[in-house]
Design brief:
Blueprint (H helix, E strand, L loop, with lengths): L2 H6 L2 H6 L3 E6 L3 H5 L2 H7 L5 E3 L2 H9 L5 H7 L7 H26 L6 E5 L8 H15 L4 E6 L4 H10 L4 E6 L2 H20 L9 E6 L1 H17 L3 H10 L3 H16 L2 H9 L6 E5 L12 H5 L5 E6 L2 H7 L21
């Protein structure tokens, strides 16, 4: 693609020319009931939505969007607080999934997903995670739903079984490369189990949500403490050079693992039957440190088959990023897999 053309393109759409998809890490009823979500899909090229209980909590408590619905639910004495939350969340997820269905169809099930998370209280309960994931999957009743499951020791076995049953999974709370590899292995094993049962591996999808900025937040705090104890200028220069770099380095190494795991004979056998790779979704890409550019993680993690979770509002990304700002010359699509290296 001509770099001059990319420079004037809608920034979210420009990311697509690099093999990227942008998913909005945000949901609320006024977004999906009005024209805003459709505008984001049609004009900005939004490819998916993720949610979690905290996002829904802010939407429900911090707005009047749900006032009428809550009043109606209060008339159902058989529903406890969790039941009311689920009723609201499922309705929103269904509406968003319907809006993204054309994207799901147009991209041959590559994009167009909406994610709904199992209860955080089940993070260390394999059986509970399985039961709730299947219940939510049935309740929403949309092929372009992904059930979010945390990458805990107890969550990973659930991922194998869910994929083996043909349920789409968004694996969340990934920080460590070793855990990422376990998650990718769980996906591959689940696909093999589904195939052994005679299932269609081409109809199940998964993403691995690898968290980025939170790592820099933790490491930068440690570096700041060490800077106060450093005795020499040389030591201080070393520590300062590491600020804001660890999360990106960690993510790039994870991406190289992705490339290795989704190649070779094992993956080729599954891909031949129509299986899609479990793409990496770069989550927590909003910068926490005001000293960093707000799109630093987006720019540094451009690579084929990648996804970016945009926090809060996709319009923020549209306003703040243009392809020509990339410090590594990634204005030309076609660098592809080598971009995240």
């Amino acid at each position: 693609m001509d770099p001059a053309h990319v420079s004037v393109m809608n920034p979210v759409r420009a990311l697509q020319s690099f093999g990227q998809s942008v998913w909005l890490d945000y949901i609320r009823r006024s977004l999906i009931d009005g024209s805003e979500l459709q505008r984001l899909i049609d004009e900005d090229g939004l490819r998916g939505i993720t949610s979690n209980p905290a996002i829904f909590e802010k939407a429900i408590i911090g707005s009047t969007d749900y006032k009428a619905a809550l009043q109606e639910l209060h008339r159902s004495p058989d529903l406890d607080a969790k039941g009311r939350y689920e009723r609201l969340a499922i309705e929103d997820i269904q509406t968003a999934a319907d809006a993204l269905q054309p994207v799901y169809a147009k991209t041959s099930r590559r994009d167009g997903y909406v994610s709904l998370e199992v209860s955080p209280h089940l993070a260390h309960d394999t059986r509970g995670t399985l039961d709730e994931a299947k219940r939510l999957w049935d309740a929403v009743g949309r092929d372009n739903l992904m059930i979010k499951v945390p990458a805990t020791a107890e969550g990973i076995p659930a991922i194998v079984q869910l994929i083996g049953k043909g349920i789409n999974v968004n694996v969340t709370l990934l920080f460590a490369q070793e855990t990422y590899e376990q998650v990718a292995e769980a996906y591959l094993t689940g696909l093999e189990q589904l195939l052994a049962r005679g299932g269609d591996v081409g109809r199940v999808a998964s993403v691995a949500s690898f968290f980025v900025s939170r790592i820099d937040t933790a490491v930068d705090n440690t570096i700041a403490a060490r800077l106060t104890m450093s005795a020499t200028d040389a030591e201080q220069r070393v520590f300062r050079s590491l600020q804001g770099t660890v999360a990106i380095a960690n993510a790039k190494l994870a991406y190289q693992r992705y490339r290795r795991l989704f190649s070779g004979p094992r993956w080729a056998a599954l891909a031949k039957r129509g299986a899609m790779p479990q793409r990496v979704l770069w989550a927590s890409t909003g910068t926490k440190n005001p000293a960093y550019r707000d799109v630093i993680y987006v720019e540094e993690l451009i690579g084929r088959h990648g996804q970016h979770g945009s926090p809060g509002d996709a319009r923020g990304l549209s306003r703040s990023w243009t392809p020509t700002q990339s410090p590594h010359g990634r204005d030309q699509a076609g660098e592809g897999d080598d971009a995240v290296a």
